[in-house]
Each structure stands twice: as structure tokens, then as C-alpha cells.
Amino acid sequence: MWFTCEKELLENAINTVQRATSNKTTYQILEGILIKAIDNKVVLTATDLDLGIETYIKANVNKNGAIVVNSKLFGEFIRKLPNDIIMIEVKDNNVFIKCNKSEFVIVGNNPDEFPSLPSINENTMYEISQDLLRNMIRQTIFAIAQDETRPILTGILFEIKDGMLNFVALDGYRLALKSESIESSQNISAVIPGKTLSEISKILEPSDDIVKITFTPNHILFTFENTKIISRLLDGEFINYRQIVPDEYKLRVKVSKNELLDSIERASLLAREGKTNLIKFEISDDKMVITSNSQIGKVYEEIEIELEGEGIKIAFNSKYFVDVLRIIDSEEIYLEFSTSVSPCVVKKCDSNNYIYLVLPVRL
Amino acid sequence: MWFTCEKELLENAINTVQRATSNKTTYQILEGILIKAIDNKVVLTATDLDLGIETYIKANVNKNGAIVVNSKLFGEFIRKLPNDIIMIEVKDNNVFIKCNKSEFVIVGNNPDEFPSLPSINENTMYEISQDLLRNMIRQTIFAIAQDETRPILTGILFEIKDGMLNFVALDGYRLALKSESIESSQNISAVIPGKTLSEISKILEPSDDIVKITFTPNHILFTFENTKIISRLLDGEFINYRQIVPDEYKLRVKVSKNELLDSIERASLLAREGKTNLIKFEISDDKMVITSNSQIGKVYEEIEIELEGEGIKIAFNSKYFVDVLRIIDSEEIYLEFSTSVSPCVVKKCDSNNYIYLVLPVRL
Fold it and tell me: Tell me, what's the pLDDT at A274?
């Protein structure tokens, strides 16, 4: 193998595929990046066996070939080189990297030992913009389950139904549902691991460029620009989330998102000290009072609201409110309540493409 | 106690004194900030018994008084308030904090239990600009000893001699000496704890405003703007550093600081893998070759230099070079050598106010 390429292109490609490199593995080859030079392209691949990322860059290939190099060391060295042309050559399993007057030699690994990514027939493709996919991930992923008690809840439901794409995450205490219209005559339902979506959202740009999505029974493939990301899907049935979201309410509060967030953040300073994260809402007429108590003190916060319906007293884990208020992209929001033991639903005032549901704490 | 003040002023004052708050203490009162309202001022004080910081802000004081509040909780709450007027009132050891429609109550501690800072007679004052003091700290502090085997080396020597102010740090492997002229007819020598100077450098601004410095046999006092910082000094004699710095050399290399830093950083990637941090210099005629080796590979770097004298082969711990090259503020530097077992001296080409000395590794 022997090729030259631009440092910046190579660095970006390494940054992309490194997101799939395994950090805690006993299988040493997974700490590496597979580099393949074919004709006028260099293809980089990394995988931890659950998630695989492949990307290519333009290069001047003098001799086709392949090698596996340690991802961390190779990445750090390339990053520290000046922005110039890099030459990479493999002789007897030694990888020579040259740039200006710098020369780096590392021992490579046999490319035949590198696991190949599952091959996926790219028949049915769904299309969505990078920016939209990023937002759908960001607005739901925080609500996935953090423990593995029910593995299916560590993923996000990807559902296409009746021309809508729905992302759903829930952990038993709250649920986040983000919807966008999509062009598709087919319905589909699959659960994508949270880790996969978290890494993808770091690679996606806030741009209108298209991501193509394909499924097999066990895998999902994302294709955009020069990059392919393949992940296994989670086994099992997702919870029937439609049964959980209430379709009516007894009272509805309209409130400024930022004022509510600031007040809850201050109240949660003490709630945190008490280790319960407990905050109480007292809603009546034109104001909402938020309080929290602990051994060392108490907080009282008052916010102006618009109320439809009767008042209510209800308590929550403050973290579940802070999480959603930090990511919701709307100036004003609705809070919908029924009783002090039934869930609160958070919606945007200016759009119905986002629903967040949170269970109260019984006092 | 009862006063009102601007949120921003109070927040800045908290940020300043918090640098002396003790984090790992069994003496609970040291986790607090002493707040004293006197006439039209509010004075905040924190100390960990080694380091004490006191600062004051303007305030409308309705009732003089004092209280101790938990530093972390108080600081976080004030920080999260809007930029507005804050009212603070103490009733029966409860501290009431009000701002707009937010109200926070925390239990305070008895101010009489808070240790008072040593009182210092501000007779002889040395003056230096904030920016200069910041730089003198930054360019020496990285060379202090990290372990407590010889406690005196965990401090920086503050020496005034013959109209020069010298800061000296050394750890047995390298030495950093920064000098500036100062107006003083007296000579002085004291060793200031590294931790004190590290916290001070985070409070100082890059401005021409003056810092006044006073000594007692056991303490040092820094005064600037509304702030006083008092620290104990380290006991014992500092090493006679003048004996260590060689006053001649056999060969001298002129080199671009950034090129040398980049090359050494790349070489140290492998040096680090080998866990020795070992890099080798081979200096001859108009070039300097830097190499490093480990089981998994090797790096070869070549840099253009101007050489006075004969060539040399010499080896170093790369970390000791990276540290100084990251902070030295000069485009071009001199490296002065005598033999492969005697120290290398690093100097700036455009000034003689900085000397760094590093011991080689014997091969």
C-alpha cells in the first residue's frame, strides 16, 4: 500500500470512524482502524462489533493495499502534523507516515483479521436532513433508560407510521416523543441503541444535506456524504407508547420556558442537597409557586402563568424537568395536568411535533 | 444583618474568595464564607487556614452584622439569579436571600467561630502590575515539585536582590527562573506555596493595575483592588539556585520555538507509549534530529537550526521540554549545551529575563 492525501481530509475521516473504535476490548484488533487504498480512494473502517463506521477520502494511490493501525496513536500523530500532504506506505507490516521532515513508523496489524461490516442491501431508503436527524436524537435521547434492567429501553424507537417519523424514548419515569413528516408509503418500527444514536449525532452537521436510512431485520444503515454507519438493532418489542400519552387534561398552564427553567434550577440546588430532587408546584390563578426544602434551607420561587382550569398541587423529581427544559426549542410551553398522581405533559406552544411526559412523585 | 447589593458584584466577590474555601476539611466552618456588613460595605472572607482571601463590595447596608454561609450552595444560588438587586437578611441564624420573586433561606453558622486572618502590618510594600505577576507565576509554577518529599520545593522562591525580582521553581530535574526589575532598596527572600500562587494567578487580571506585596516572617500579603490575599510562607532554606545555572556553554542552537514544540510533541506520542518519555536529540551543522522509539514504532523529526560550536547527541524526558515550550513567549529560542550529561539551558533570543534548565537522561 502506498498513497498520498491531504492531512485535513485524513484527520476528519479518522475523527469520524474513531467513534466506533472499541476502548474496552480484549480483542486487540478492534482498537485499530482498517485503512484500505483502492484506486483513487482511501477507505477507513472501525467497529466495536455493535457499531461500524466506514468513510472514504480522495487520495493519490500509487499501490493498492490494506493495513490495520492503532486508532489512538495514528489519530494523535496525524492530528499533530502540519496541514500538508501526507504520504503513507506499508512495507512488511510496518506503516511509514511521512509529512515534511516528520517520519513516523508503527507496526501494523493484518487486515484479514479485521471483522467485516455486515453487507446491507440498499433497497428501501428513507431520507431525512442531517439537521433534522440531529435534533430528533437530541430531543429524545436524554430520556432513554440508563440501566440495563430492560435493555429495550436503552434504545430509541424509530417508527414510521402514516407518513410520520416518530422517535420515542422512555425510562419508566418519563417519555419523550418527537415527530416529523416523512415521505414513505411503508410503515416500519425498529429500536436503535442509544449509543449508536449518540455517536451519530456527534458526526452529523447542522446542514440540510440528506441522510439515507435502510433497515434489515437486525441492522440499520445510515449513509451520508462519504460515510456509512451500520448498527445492530435492539431485540424485542418496544412498549406501546400511545397508551401512555394521555389525550386530555383538566388544567393547562402556559409559561415562559426560560423562567421555568431558571426557577427549577435554583429550587433543585436544595432538592439535590436533600438527595430526593423533590420540588413542589402549587398552581393557582395567575401564578405558579415552586418550592423545595432540605435540612439546611428552603427555596420559594414564583412565576407568572396563564391558567386554564382549576389549580393543583403536585411534586416532581426536578431532574426530569431540567432535562427537558434545557433542550426544548420553544419560548413558551404548555404544561398539562389532570390529577396530582397522573403524569404531566409538556408541549411546545408553537408546534405539536414534540411531547414530553413525566410522572409526578406521590407525597 | 440586612443589606442589598448588585448580583454581579456579589457573584464576582464569591468567585474570588471561593478560591480559598477548603474542600476536604473536617472543620465544617471552613466550607463557609464569612459575610460581614459594615456601613456601606459587605466584606466576604474565606480561608483554609493556609490561604485566606478577603474582598469587599459596595452595598446598601440597613443593619450591620455578620454570618457564615455554606460557600458552594450560596455561590451556586447567587450565580443562578438574574442580574438584579439582591437582598440579604439574617434572622435567628437563618439567611434570607431575595431577588425578584425568588427567595432562598439557608441556615447560617456563627461568625464568631470563623477563624480570623492574621493581621499584617502594611509597612514595606513592593509593587508590581497584575499582568506581570500573573506571567511570573505562569512561567515558573509548572516546574515546582509535585511530591512532598522536600516540601520547600513545592513553593516558588520570591527573591528581591539588587533591584531585581526573581521567581524560581525547581524540582530536582529542571529549574525555571523569571526575572523583572523592581523598585526596592531592600533585599528579601521568601518561599510562597505553589497552591497560593496558583489560586492568585486565577484571580489576577491581565491588566496594568498594581498589586502591593508585604511580608512578615511567616506570611505574605497581596493587596489589589478590593481584595487581600494572605498566605503562610514555607519554612526552610531554598536551594542556592545560582550555583546550579551554568554561566557558559560549548554549543548553542537557535531554533523556532513552535517547530521544536510540534516536533517534540509528535515524538513524545511514542515516548509516552514506552513509558519513559525518552526523546533523543542529534545536533549537527544546520539541523537537529529528534527521535523516539518504542516497541510499536519510531518517530524521526528534522528541524532547521543555527548552530554555534560542535554537534552533540543528548537525550531528555520529553515532558520537561513540552512544559517550557508551551509557556515561553518568544518566537525563537536558544538551547545551550556543554556535554551529553550536563544540563541544557533554554533562553529567549529576544530577552534575558527567563532561564530554564533541564537535566538530560543518561543513556
Answer: 65
